[in-house]
């Protein structure tokens, strides 16, 4: 089965603009694992001819969304403008930011808020204290939900059928020697988070990194986001996380929930 067969069986609507769809596919083929791509890479990833991929890339270069050194291409910060309208329409980032600043000031660690988008989490608010990951985290950064503390909190908030569908389609990669890769074990870990209301992740995303996350719920009790603290593994034992950091994390989650309820009345 070729990559184009599923779309060939479904007739697009009369309003479907194929060139726009192809242009967006070119943008989406860049991610945290493929930050720089050659023309051939982009053509393969999008199932376009080299000539077509080249036209889209050079158009995006001219518009300022992509940069190139003549052999490789990469996204520029301007691409964040495409999602800014959506993010800025949410009350969540504005509500969460001062609470994250207060939390980070208190515990002297980086803190973030993210939402679930497909199989990834997307960072929508963040206060970095120090860079402790090899990948720089900014607003709009996407990471695999299964290997992040916020991701597991958000997955724990899904209905059972949606969680099962997610796990069935999931392509699990071993990111470190500690990453859970067995589906049944991963589901058990997510259900434990659902029961505990907290997730502590010990070096599954990146060696030397520990993080803990709590859910942010709306007035109906549905999990709409997650808040976390991340820290170098050498700084706290797992026991110290529970005594020194998690109480402050829970308070922050509750404070954000209360403010969200107020602005959404």
TrEMBL record:
Function: May be an activator protein for the gylABX operon.
Entry keyword Transmembrane: no
Pfam hit, one: HTH_IclR
Gene Ontology biological-process annotations: 3,4-dihydroxybenzoate metabolic process; glycerol metabolic process; negative regulation of DNA-templated transcription; positive regulation of DNA-templated transcription
Coiled-coil regions, chain positions: none
Record flagged with keyword Coiled coil: no
Organism encoding this protein: Rhodococcus koreensis
Record key words, sorted: DNA-binding, Glycerol metabolism, Transcription, Transcription regulation
A single MF term (Gene Ontology): DNA-binding transcription factor activity
Protein name as it appears in the record: Glycerol operon regulatory protein
UniProt xrefs under InterPro entries: GAF-like_dom_sf, HTH_MetabolicPath_Reg, PcaR_PcaU, Tscrpt_reg_IclR_C, Tscrpt_reg_IclR_N, WH-like_DNA-bd_sf, WH_DNA-bd_sf
Domain of life: Bacteria
NCBIfam families on file: pcaR_pcaU
PANTHER family for the chain: HELIX-TURN-HELIX TRANSCRIPTIONAL REGULATOR, ICLR FAMILY, TRANSCRIPTIONAL REGULATOR
